[in-house]
Records
---
Amino acid sequence: MKKYTTLLLLLISITTFSQELNKDCEAIEKKVIEWRRDFHQNPELSNREFKTAKKIAKHLKSLGIETQENVAKTGVVGILKGNQPGKVVALRADIDGLPVVERNNLPFKSTVTSNYLGKNVGVMHACGHDTHIAILMGVAEVLAKNKDKIKGTVKFIFQPAEEGAPEGEEGGAELMVKEGVLKNPDVDAIFGLHISSGQDVGTITYKPGGIMAASQSFKIKVKGKQSHGSRPWASIDPIMVSAKIIDALQTIISREVDLTNEGAVITVGKIDAGVRSNIIPESAVMIGTIRTLDYGMQKQINDRMKEMVPAIAKSYRAEATIEIAKGYPITYNNIELTKQVLPTLQNVAGKENVTLIKAITGAEDFSFFQKEVPGFYFFLGGKTIGNKNPYPHHTPDFQIDESGMLLGVKTMTQLTLDYLNN
Ligand SMILES: [Zn+2]
Ligand SMILES: [Zn+2]
């Protein structure tokens, strides 16, 4: 009997605590919206998030959180130690905007311009990373307030350059990992979210395993022999060889990989060859992208491309080389961790609002963290219910319904506590 009484008391205390937390999250919603509007109005490009980082650092310091600045150039890391020792969990928000001219009529619309690849461009939080910053700042405030109830340590990672560092620069999650952001104290698990302009406010979507694809770019160079266009027998035609290569690459997807396992994509996005109608050129260059959701399939595809490309060229008397970049890893939700966090998502959002989705062939650099430690990444609704025509991410009309952010604060807070305290 005593055992049950203790269990009951424990359950009651857990329930009251999560009710308290909910209240703390709700109390902070207004501030989160204000922060988001400020970031929205003052977006900064990848690796140039100077003012953004200052504001984040100021907030973390005001909460008494140990703060590191200039991590991976413009990143900010906060370390909050709970009152009892335990595991270490990291929470990540990406903080960069995009070279997009905002076309919304919001009172806090961005009119910021900046230099991008030598051009003057408009800057906009057109992917919703402004909401990610504000949500994580809110979570930091709630958790700092409840520090006495935390068993372990929380690392807040405000990551620059998710959209990709400017050419020739390092950046993003990869650089953060390289600089040791997951060490000292060593992170046991990491959580991240992305707001979605196409998903109803109040909902969460997730997938165990590969949720977003690994992305690798490739470059194929074909060398033939130039001739007059009227005398193809005098040539080795690199355009014809390129056509054979493109055709063959698609058979890797349609005839070699097991598509019942996961999807995979090879796209040739650009062919560059020739100057005019009556010249068969000497060479051709193709570039493209590979998307995979499984490392075994990625290796198979890479290996076969490397075998096929020179062999096909050779069979037509040409030469071809292929380079495949390392690219972004798979955004891979650890299976065990996903199982473990699902009840938390369902408790916070309501079971009916948490949906399993199919994989997305886009990529996300959160994957670099997940390559090092178990991680869980999910999507948060940011679309006004009933809006039939939401604008996609990275477009000038992109908009987020701010009422969706509260669920983000609640979910991240509860995920942290459930992970550390259980
Ligand atoms: Zn984006
Ligand atoms: Zn994004």
---
Amino acid sequence: MTAHKSGDPTTLNRLYGRQSGHKLRPGQQELVDRLLPALCVPEEGDITAESLFGHDHPLHFEIGFGAGEHMAIRADMLPDHGFIGCEPFLNGVVGALGHIRDKSLPNIRLHMGDALSVLNRIPDGSLSFVYLLHPDPWPKARHAKRRMMNKGPVELIARKLKPGGEFRFGTDHPVYLRWALMVMNGHPAFEWLAKEPKDFLTRPGGWPETRYEAKARRQGHEVWYFRYRRI
Ligand SMILES: C[S@@+](CC[C@H](N)C(=O)[O-])C[C@H]1O[C@@H](n2cnc3c(N)ncnc32)[C@H](O)[C@@H]1O
């Protein structure tokens, strides 16, 4: 496990947990060697829809996309929109590259690493959607600062969303759920879009299931879905 620390919760290298797993097969290695360089978010400069895709269409940002199935399905649903996905786990990035190749998706750019370092480089008020789906729970109280759902990252997400933009968050973890409600409830930048319990107890339309969510359901866990509108 790596844990880089920084004093500023919005600019830190928030890389905790594993970055690589099983050895890549030759076909997967080829995706990393050939496709990934063409889709990487540039190392420097502002990150805008214009700079990445050559148009100013709506921009979506996914934090920790896992194996990328949610991002790929959303990008396929919304071919005129641009998607940026960040994930430090190499095997996850390979999964996303496979979806991008199989579905021939031209509207995704990837960063293999910390999402917040990329989010910081996006001009304020320019994102239409931010997704944080089943973030690592860090259930022990002494690790609570590592949770993505914390004041610094949430302020950053709020700054980068445009008014009317949407922040989607999902979890199956009761500790994380309570923590997230504490961070988000009454947050001046966000309006919770749930009007009745079914709005957060059932997966909303246009919210594809993630791999982690499917696993949670198989294990009999309840899953909670939150949609917040940027005020
Ligand atoms: C529990 S998994 C969920 C993956 C996926 N969202 C899903 O629902 O299937 C959490 C993911 O967040 C990623 N992650 C952790 N810290 C991150 C960071 N600072 N930036 C981007 N992704 C991060 C992990 O590598 C991991 O793949």
